Amino acid sequence: MLETSGNPSPADDARLSPPQTEAGKGRVELRGVSVSFGEGAGLSELSLTIEPGEFLCLLGPSGCGKSTALNAIGGFVAPSSGEVAVDGAPVRGPGPDRGIVFQHYSLFPWKTAQDNVAFGLRMQGASRAEARRAACDYLAAVGLARFAQDYPAKLSGGMQQRVAIARALVNRPAVLLMDEPFGALDAQTRALMQEHLLEQWREVGNTVVFVTHDVDEALFLGDRVIVLSAAPGRVLLDLRVELPRPRPREIYASADFNEAKARCLELIRRESRRAFETSDALP
Amino acid sequence: MTDARTLSRSARTNGGEAGAAVSSRALRPWRRWAVRALSIAALVLVWQFASAAKLRLPFISFVFLPAPAEVAEAFLELSRSGKLMSHIESSAARVLAGYLLAAVVGVALGVVIARKRFLEDLLLPALELARPIPAVAWIPLAILMFPSSEASMIFITFTGALFPILLNSIDAIREVDGRLIASARALGAREATIIREVVLPGALPGVFTGLSIGMGTSWFCLVTAEMISGQLGVGYYTWESYTLQNYPDIVVGMLIIGALGWTSSAAVRVLGALVMPWRRER
Predict the structure, then answer these.
(1) Of B65, B82, B117, which residue sits at a domain end?
(2) Same domain? B56 vs B129
(3) I need a labelling partner for A280 at 20 to 30 A (CA). Which of A235, B193, B211, B272 fits?
(4) Distance between CA B215 and CA A114 in Å, rounded?
(5) Domain around B22
(6) Contacts of A193 (CB under 8 A, 6+ apart)
(7) Of B9, B179, B193, Cβ closest to residue A106
(8) Same domain, yes or no, for B138 and B27?
(9) Which CATH number is B213's domain given?
(10) pLDDT range class, residue B64, cuts 50, 70, 90
């Protein structure tokens, strides 16, 4: 499915690097952020500082508010108290400094891969022709030149997510928000996508906030893994992942990896059980 | 690639049943066309039998029903008289005018009602009040309100098409995936762009469902509308044949309306496929 990254097509030879994020940009601060939902996944006074260029993974039992935290940073959810700031500026709504990638089917189905990627550039004031040209170059750089004129429905799930990542990164956002972006992919594709994402991240140098419920994925990708409690979410564990980069797959067998994994799993299991036992009243 | 594609496709089309239908259509298109032709043939056959046998059941009687051959004869006579095309042209022009007006008004109202709660509360109750009013009830007011009978007739075909288009547009716009709108916002799009480039294309499949139904309902109101007409129109022809108790002509009028409504709905569907190329490749 990702065969294009293995054997580059002619277009890939003139390898353009993706646009880079300005160095030192992308500090995300959550100060005592609470989000109250009727009975959904809220947050309780979540405080967290994410350094520029950091790859942070948010883990936690389902319904713990991981996605809510992500949406608060994205500006899609307004905190009931506390504040979210990106590079010192309080978040008042969505903006092009924070790109977002959802789990799946969030490409515009009526736009070709190229026009999906071009959309962000046009919104920044580029003409349609300019934006298309830049989008085409960028798709070539990530090995998707052949699919530029295809509609998303024609692309595989993994390919769609690669276009979604390209669409989010083409605007050079300081922060890339990802909500279980590989959750709907099969295991092999997911592994390839993780490596693809790390490659992109290394070149672009942006901050990544990555929501997942897969501990392996979080530890393989992240500089830092945050485990949230059952709703309303607060930080249970703030783990710095000291594994070297680039990380080979064999890292899964290392003692450090497995020790960290055991800690995370234990916490998540405990929280899930607590949530399960206190939610008798819920369906 | 195949695995993921099949998965994502079946997720979108509710599973195996749809997949099976697609493959049998791909294998034997002629078989489906044969069955479709059979549908019409069976209708004519049952009709022929019922009228020839002068079937009289306790709850329905075919004694005065004109036979298919009589109707065909009446049709030939109408086309020989040279009036057929003028009837069709007048009716098609009225339906088209009312329908296009309804399409513009219905989609525009659909956008504002679906996007702005205040406008929904302001507009929808009045529209819901008007919706159940049958076309025939509008006739007296239509005559009083509009300067010409032509405008009154267009208004009545308009009322027929408006509500299916409006209600389907509202639903389709509300059901546009929030993640698409969120993605557009995060890419820096503003409200007007979001409506033009995300909401409208996203709602297009549902809007076209409404446009297709509205095309049918617009024809549905034609006889009612052309009760006002003094001389031309397929609806007028049907209504006049009724007042003259000319039964074969009534059936001719009915069948012409049916055929015109059917073909124009099909035309709307073809147009839909043309403006939504991304749905063709699925």
Answers:
(1) B65
(2) no
(3) A235
(4) 35
(5) 1-65
(6) A2, A158, A161, A162, A181, A182, A185
(7) B179
(8) no
(9) 1.10.3720.10
(10) confident
Contact assignment for A100 to B189 by CB distance below 8 Å: no
Q: Are residues B155 and B272 in the same domain?
A: yes
Asked whether the beta carbons of residue A168 and residue B186 sit closer than 8 angstroms, the reply is yes
Per-residue pLDDT in tens (0 to 9) along chain A, 283 residues: 334 444 434 344 334 455 666 667 889 999 999 888 765 668 888 899 999 999 999 998 877 788 889 999 999 999 998 999 999 999 999 999 999 999 877 899 999 999 999 999 999 999 999 999 999 998 988 888 999 999 999 999 889 999 999 999 888 899 999 999 998 889 988 999 999 999 989 988 899 999 998 999 999 999 999 998 887 778 888 999 888 888 888 888 888 899 999 999 998 888 888 877 776 544 4
The number of angstroms, rounded, from the C-alpha of A224 to the middle of its chain's C-alpha atoms is 13
Cβ contacts of B197 on chain A, cutoff 8 Å? 108, 119
Asked whether residue B237 falls in the same domain as residue B123, the answer is yes
Cα–Cα nearest to A98, from A111, A84, A83: A84
Q: B101 and B41 in one domain? A: no
How many A×B Cβ pairs under 8 Å? 93
Same domain, B107 and B11: no
Residue B151: closest CA among B105, B234, B107, B93: B93
Task: Band the pLDDT of B23: cuts 50, 70, 90.
Answer: low
Residue A262 has which token pair?
Answer: 């055991």
- Predicted TM-score (pTM) of the model is 0.78
**Is the CB of A157 inside 8 Å of chain B's CB atoms?**
yes
* Beta-carbon contacts of residue A93 (< 8 Å; ≥ 6 apart): A75, B185
Q: What is the pLDDT of residues B142-162, one digit of tens each?
A: 999 999 999 999 999 999 999
Q: What is the Cα–Cα distance from B111 to B105, expressed in whole angstroms?
A: 10
* Mutate: best of B12, B175, B185, B187, partner A, most A CBs <10 A: B187
Model ipTM value? 0.81
Query: Which residue of B lies nearest to A116 if distances are taken between CA atoms?
Result: B184
- Read off the pLDDT of residues B93-115 as tens digits, 9 standing for 90 and up: 999 999 999 999 999 999 999 99
Closest CA to A52 of A266, A208, A217, A177: A208
Q: Do A151 and B184 touch (CB under 8 A)?
A: no
Q: Of B65, B86, B115, at which residue does a domain stop?
A: B65
Pairing between strand A55-59 and A98-101? unpaired
For residue B208, the chain A residues in CB contact (below 8 A) are none
All domains of chain A, ordered by start, with CATH? 3-277 (3.40.50.300)
The answer to whether residue B88 neighbours chain A at the CB level (below 8 Å) is no
Are B117 and B184 part of one and the same domain?
Answer: yes
A contact test, residue of B6, B7, B183 with most A CBs within 10 A: B183
Q: Token pair of A186, please?
A: 């099969």
